[in-house]
Amino acid sequence: MIFEAVNKLVREQLGLKDFQLQTPKAIEHGDVSLPCFSFSKEFKKSPHVIAEEFAKNVTPRGLVKSVSAIAGFLNFHINKQELAKLLLPVIDDKYGRNNAGKKRIVVVEYSSPNIAKPFGVGHLRSTVIGASIAKLYEFHGWKVIRMNHLGDWGTQFGKLIVAFKRWGVEKRLNEEPIKHLLEIYVAFHTEAEQHPEIEEDARQAFAELERGNKEYKKLWKKFVNLSIKEFKKIYAQLNVNFDYEYGESFYSDKMQAVIDLAESKSVSERNDGALIIPLEGMPPVLLLKSNSSTTYHTRDMASAIYRIEKLKSERLVYVVGQEQILHFNQVFGALGKLGYDTSDMHHIPFGLFHFKDGKMSTRKGNVIFLEEILEEAKERVLALIKEKNPSLKNKEDVAKKVGIGSIIFGDLQNDRIKEIVFDWDRIIDLQGDTGPYIHYTYARIMSILRKSKNSKKRNMDYSKLLHPVEEKIISLLEQYPSVIGSALDEHHPHIVAQYLLKLCRSFNEFYHDCKVMGSPEEVERLMLICSVGKVIKSGLDLLGIETVEEM
Ligand code: ARG
Questions:
Q1: DSSP β-bridge partners for residue 285
Q2: Pocket around ligand 1 at a 6 A CB cut-off
Q3: What is the pLDDT of residues 61-95, one digit of tens each?
Q4: 177-194 helix and 214-238 helix, angle to the nearest 10 degrees
Q5: C-alpha 121 to ligand 1 mean position (Å)
Q6: pLDDT 10s digits, 170-207
Q7: Could you give all domains of the chain from N- to C-terminal order, each with its CATH number?
Q8: 449-476 b/e with 16+ CB inside 10 Å = b?
Q9: pLDDT digits (tens, 9 = 90+) for 25-51
């Protein structure tokens, strides 16, 4: 809103066509600034002088209260009360939503856990980051297809088949499927240290599974179904869903086409019995192993082609850990060789998530189960509620939303590329930069609004919102659409999370300094905080977090 207003003023009063507006580094300098460096050449004057002259030639009006020139920048100061008058009435549940995506189709792939393995924290990261990115796309007018690419194919299933035949216990498998599959997987690796030849048995078993061995197929299907049942419990807790949940095996019958295409375009070559696609500046893609098994790469190529051709996707987004950067470079590189346009294929990497004792490894079996983390989050929040607000109704439900929200927020508040060291105190703290702090702020706003039900209605006079913290809140509210826009452009949900923290901090400062009920500014202040509440709810929703009305 303010950029549009300044843009118009600059065109009309200064007659400029080609210029770039930006947000000043220091808030005292103003709300919008026009750097004058690029005009030096044309006007044959220093940016400093140009800015001074511009300042003299501008007559402030509308949203622009005054202008000033500092060190080559022309700064615009916005009339916050005028802004409030235009802005607050238009803030509703849809505030910030637009149609920039023009209904284009984007496939956002996230989560993608592996069958027969625990749902790890890496998959949790992919799930929450991806779910948020998908929501950001939708909010900006894209047609989003949510995709889960389950790891249900590959040599590890050969290992599991071999292991299950040796150490598997049917009863235990039915009772605690993932734990048992993990046990036998660990047993396999322990055995392989003494008897490496079982690795070859596993490769053979997988090759037979690919050829359709009935007994193996049945066992494999059982592992798949039991695992999916477990994953569904986690998705239900996180409130996450998918349009398609295709395992890698779904692409089994679509891989020959990839191989044929590669051969017909003469981009593949034989190498020691294997089939590869050589690439510049990185290791080749292995399409077929020498025992003619396909690979993780082949399946990803087939799935990308499926998304483009069958699902008509115009953009592919993959939310997968940074340890697979090379993998996606190879897959995109090979797709490019096959003639696909790779300019709108995006790998969105993220850093490791670890506990104080280092990275976890499934092979050694030292994993912490995600369900246990989610459970503990709920319990910790419940304890907090019992201490702070013992009379609260439906404590359990509130603890669930706030507890799960604390885990999601604890992830999304970080730049995704950075590593996260998991620390309970950092995640739950009601005073700190946490999800519960935001939930608490929202509940506080709702409580004021409930109490205001009987407050007298009268016409708004926005010129009363003069306190510096009120002005700060008005500016922040105005920034919301551009904040979520950059979060989408950069695939960085933490931009939304950091913004919400800032907004909540300003609100709490306001709450401390400004009286609402019974003050001369009562209705204007109620309007202001109602808008803050709407934006918090919308922002949390974009992060995949549900709000609570009371806490
Ligand atoms: N299942 C894989 C893993 O856990 C991640 C799959 C990522 N997606 C993909 N299209 N390759 O490592």
A1: 277
A2: 109, 112, 114, 149, 151, 300, 318, 320
A3: 999 999 999 999 999 999 999 999 999 999 999 99
A4: 130
A5: 14
A6: 999 999 898 899 999 999 999 999 999 999 999 999 99
A7: 2-78 (3.30.1360.70), 105-354 (3.40.50.620), 370-542 (1.10.730.10)
A8: beebeeeeeeebebebbeeebbbbbbbb
A9: 888 899 999 999 999 999 999 999 999
Name the nearest CA neighbour of 143 among 99, 97, 104.
104
The four Cα atoms 333, 339, 344, 346 give a dihedral, to 10 degrees, of -30
- What does the pLDDT read at residue 357? 57
In angstroms, the CA 422 to CA 425 distance is: 9
Distance of CA 14 to the CA centre of its chain: 41
**Pairing of β 73-78 and β 32-35:** antiparallel
Tell me if the pTM is above 0.90.
Answer: yes
- For 223-292, the DSSP string reads HHHHHHHHHHHHHHHHT---SEEEEGGGGGGGHHHHHHHHHHTT--EEETTEEEEEETTEEEEEEE-TT-
DSSP conformational letter for 354: E
DSSP 8-state code for residue 116: T
Ordered DSSP codes for 129-163: HHHHHHHHHHHTT-EEEEEEEEB--SHHHHHHHHH
Which of 117, 146, 324 has most ligand 1 atoms within 8 Å of CB, for mutation?
324
Question: Atom 10 in ligand 1: which residue has the minimum CA distance?
Answer: 300
Within 10 Å of residue 433's Cβ, how many Cβ atoms?
19
Residue nearest to atom 4 of ligand 1 (CA): 113
| DSSP β-bridge partners for residue 288 | 275, 294
Neighbours of 422 (CB within 10 A): 16
E strand or H helix that includes residue 33: strand 32-35
- Eight-state DSSP code of residue 12: I
Please report, in angstroms and rounded to a whole number, the separation of the first and last CA atoms in the chain: 34
Write out the two tokens for 466.
């003069």
Centre of ligand 1 from the C-alpha of residue 302, in Å: 14
Q: What distances in angstroms separate CA 232 from CA 119, 148, 386, one per listed residue? A: 11, 12, 30
Ligand 1, atom 6, lies closest to the CA of: 112
Residue 109: strand pairing partners: 147, 318
- What pLDDT score does 37 carry? 95
Distance CA 372, CA 120 (A): 11
* Cα 437 from Cα 382, distance rounded (Å): 15
What pLDDT, in 10s, does the model give residues 474-495? Answer: 999 999 999 999 999 999 999 9
- For residues 386-391, average pLDDT: 94
Cα 477 to its chain centre, rounded Å, is 22
CA distance 547 to 551: 10
Taking the C-alpha atoms of residue 395 and residue 385, their distance in angstroms, rounded to an integer, is 7
Q: Rg (Cα) of the chain, in Å, rounded? A: 28
Return d(Cα 480, Cα 109) in angstroms, integer: 26
Confidence at residue 366, expressed as pLDDT on a 0 to 100 scale: 46
Average pLDDT over every residue of 219-224: 95
Average pLDDT, the chain: 94
Residue 131 and residue 151 in contact, taking contact as beta carbons nearer than 8 Å: no
